[in-house]
């Protein structure tokens, strides 16, 4: 028997990167999958990758910052699957550049997607999770929410991910009465499409030398942690932020950032 047989999981940002890896891992363990993503073409590719019958996998083109689109998608998911057990909030965009370079439009957009999107989808999922008698929400945060990792990300991204961690704690406190556990995962550097551009210009080498495990994570490694938090193995775990960074935050110091800034911008 698979770990998630009979359960339904919604993954936002599920068409690529960590979200897709989570969808694949949950599907292998028996869950029915609903992918929410802003990119329709990527959703089609993701569903082809999952290779599941239509009754076990659906995709919905959704901008997680648009409340009407989010509510409509969850209404369709409820009508199609009849229940919801797991929500993984993996939709996100990156922000780069200094404080001076971060204009208000970028600030608002990053916070809207990376933080407000978590709020929006969790709120929309709540009725179905309550009706199921409980469930699990796993939010993808980042080590940028707890430590400075400039110049790889900017102030908007750091603020958004710090907000995700705080939001996770607040949601966990509120929703425990309904049997809904809420946790966050804070990855370090991961080989995803989001980091591809920086890796292509060699900006990752300085970080790799400082990560104790000496490499970036694979999306599947982050997915396995998400599955643990969504599973009954974590039945007494809620309100936590699980850091998955190859040991980077253990050794990261205030002296590291200026040195990396020079290496990343020769």
Could you say how many structural domains there are in total?
1
Mean pLDDT score, rounded? 91
Alpha carbon gap, first and last residue:
53 Å
Number of helical elements: 10
Please state how the strands of the largest beta sheet are arranged side by side: 3-2-1-4-5-6-7
What is the CATH architecture assignment? 3-Layer(aba) Sandwich
The CATH topology comes to: Rossmann fold
Q: Could you name the CATH class?
A: Alpha Beta
Written as H for each helix and E for each strand, in order along the chain, the element string is: EHEHEHEHEHEHHHEHH
Flag low-confidence runs: 258-266
Gyration radius, rounded? 18 Å
Topology of this structure?
Layout (H helix, E strand, L loop, with lengths): L7 E5 L4 H12 L3 E6 L2 H11 L6 E5 L5 H15 L4 E4 L14 H28 L3 E6 L14 H21 L4 E8 L5 H8 L4 H6 L8 H12 L10 E4 L3 H4 L4 H9 L2
Parallel strand pairs: 1-2, 1-4, 2-3, 4-5, 5-6, 6-7
Helix pairs in contact: 1-8, 3-4, 4-5
Family: Belongs to the short-chain dehydrogenases/reductases (SDR) family.
Protein name: SDR family oxidoreductase
Keywords: Oxidoreductase
């Amino acid at each position: 028997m698979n770990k998630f047989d009979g359960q339904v999981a919604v993954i936002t940002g599920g068409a690529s990167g960590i979200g897709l890896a989570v969808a694949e891992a949950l599907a292998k363990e028996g869950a029915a999958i609903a992918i929410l993503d802003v990119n329709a073409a990527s959703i089609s590719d993701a569903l082809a990758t999952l290779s599941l019958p239509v009754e076990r996998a659906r995709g919905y083109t959704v901008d997680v910052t648009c409340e009407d689109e989010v509510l409509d998608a969850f209404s369709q998911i409820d009508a199609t699957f009849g229940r919801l057990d797991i929500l993984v909030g993996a939709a996100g965009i990156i922000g780069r550049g200094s404080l001076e370079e971060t204009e208000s439009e970028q600030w608002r957009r990053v916070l809207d997607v990376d933080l407000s999107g978590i709020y929006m989808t969790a709120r929309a999922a709540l009725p179905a999770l309550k009706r199921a008698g409980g469930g699990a929400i796993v939010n993808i945060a980042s080590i940028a929410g707890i430590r400075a990792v400039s110049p790889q990300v900017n102030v908007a991204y750091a603020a958004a991910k710090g907000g995700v961690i705080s939001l996770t704690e607040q949601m966990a406190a509120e929703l425990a009465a309904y049997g809904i556990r809420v946790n966050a995962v804070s990855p370090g550097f991961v080989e995803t499409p989001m980091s591809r551009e920086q890796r292509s210009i060699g900006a990752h080498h300085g970080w790799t030398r400082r990560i104790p495990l000496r490499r970036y994570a694979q999306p599947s490694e982050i997915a396995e942690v998400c599955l643990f938090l969504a599973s009954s193995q974590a039945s007494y775990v809620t309100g936590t932020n699980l850091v998955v960074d190859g040991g980077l935050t253990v050794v990261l110091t205030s002296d590291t950032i200026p040195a990396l800034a020079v290496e990343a911008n020769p």
